[in-house]
Amino acid sequence: MRATRLIGVTMALTLATMGCSEAAERPEEATSTPGTPPAGTPAGLDVFYKQRLAWSDCGGGFQCAKADVPLDYARPAGGKVSLSLIRRPAENKSKRIGSLFTNPGGPGGSGVDFLRQAATSFGKDLRERFDLVGFDPRGVAGSEPVQCLNGGQLDTYFATDSSPDDRKEIDALAAQSEKFAKACQTKSAALLPYVGTLNAARDMDVLRAAVGDDKMTYYGASYGTYLGAFYAEQFPKNVRALVLDGAVDPKESSTQILVEQAKGFETAFRAFAADCVKSAGCPLGTSENAALDNISALLAKLDKTPLPQRLDSRKLTESWAATGIAAALYAKQTWPVLRQAIIQATQQNDGTLLMTLADQMVDRKKDGTYSNQAAANMAVNCVDKPNPADLAAYEKYVDQSKKTSPRFGPFVVWGGLACVYWPVQTEQQPKATTANGSPPILVIGTTRDPATPYKWSQSLASQLQAGVLLTLEGDGHTAYLQANPCISKATDDYLVNAKPPKDGTICR
Description:
single chain; 508 residues; alpha/beta; Rossmann fold; 2 domains; 10-stranded mixed beta sheet; 13% strand; globular
């Protein structure tokens, strides 16, 4: 997902336990001796493809390791990046197929942390027959993380009005965004040019060989679909089975991603509002239109008078509140929490619950420190696609978003402003991803997904030469970890047998 001040990272949901698929037929084998570089591998990369990983116990039934990849694939001898990996070994060694790589999204999400939290939510067949593997992409968490602002500076950054009403507020927002970019340059200049998705996908192929697999089996959520699509485009013959859940559309420009994402949050909030007003005591009124008006009024009130909250000395500003609301829209299971947070804010003048939700979204710790997800998120997105040339050009997209997404548009779109000031720019243009020559690739879309609109999954499935679309008619961000039996069975069967469901299958 695109980096924004509103959204720190798109993490796959781990709120529900997966259902189990039926017993598998004879699977396609995907294991080999480490050191299988793809055809045409540039000179100097063999040493990376031939490395053997030294796995060691790291608690909870997991094993951890480090892998080296080149900083710059054009100059393999010019420096290395050390990647952190984790795996949960297959429970049934006699029926083991190979490794199932996973990525939770972001960019900026720790794949190591994700697998520790979510391993048991994968289907029984997957746990038995695959080594579940997570990794921190370059620049993220345990893989030489990008560093930018410190905790206090991030507090100021996230609190700054990201729905500015006048030139003074726009200039203040621009100043904070430029400060973010300059801090990244000061602390991480050597890494910034190389943290993009293109290189991260190349890293994945090195990891595939390092674990001993001839072919890649992969589950990616949200931004993880973008990473998976880049992998398939570069290495279509190395694909065994790829699940891309909650897709990002590779054809969209950097700013159009934000405009469309804002629409997704509008759609998700409307679904929340429609559900809320059906129940007595809904703090937003008795009709969907009233609910929309009342949440707009709450945000407008916070713009003028931030609320106190009981976590620390910060105030709940309009921007913090919008972040908290958005966080709760990621999963239907958190709608009751959002309802209570709105009651607390509107009836008790207490911003604690909304601030708690916001802190979870941006990965702020109780001691005021942050993980590096915000830095990594911005760093990857800013180098993946070209950005508007200046502030004036950027404002046009904000104006567009106000018309289509009046409540979330400015918060989401202004969130990418730091990329205008980014020290590293790319000429790599957005384009369709076809992965010509790959086997079937499963794309999963949720119709009312707040962060990755359903139309993106439809688009990606149609771009891929062998794309297969599986739809969840429902709410929440990504589908597989929602434990919908229909989605679970179709996905698990595909990953085990490399045979996808019928294109266009709809689950409810």
